[in-house]
Amino acid sequence: MPKIKVKRIYDSFAQSDGLRILVDRIWPRGIKKEEAKLDKWLKEVAPSSELRKWFGHDPNRFEEFKEKYLEELQKDQEKKTAFTELCELAKGNDLTLLYAAKDEKHNQAIILKKEIIKK
Q1: Residue 17 and residue 3: Cα distance in Å, rounded?
Q2: Which helix (H) or strand (E) holds 7?
């Protein structure tokens, strides 16, 4: 069964990463596209700008952020399509979901990993 990892885009590339998918809406600061070693930038699956700004990476808001983000994934057709694509990429491939946030426990990549595994 393929592995799904979550990793900061600022962390070192590893052969074991498999497909590297950036799941942020905004390109990470200080990273050149050629250095990112991405297979895909799936910004459509990221939280909306409004939700991202509301969350502000406040761990106290994470549970509510998660609920609102999952609702976006179900209701927004563009996000739904992007999430389906992500699930398809996970079939038969090791996958690393990349994000830029400093908080390794409270970010959308963690939520996406759990949702992909459920599927």
Answers
A1: 9
A2: strand 4-8
pTM of this prediction exceeds 0.90 = yes
Amino acid at 80: K
Residue ranges of E strands in the chain: 4-8, 19-22, 40-41, 95-99
Question: Cα–Cα distances in Å, from 53 out to 4, 46, 47, 58, 78?
Answer: 27, 12, 10, 10, 20
Dist CA 71 CA 64 (whole Å): 11
pLDDT in single tens digits along all 119 residues of the chain: 679 999 999 999 999 999 999 999 999 999 998 889 999 999 999 999 999 999 999 999 999 999 999 999 999 999 999 999 999 999 989 999 999 999 999 999 999 999 999 98
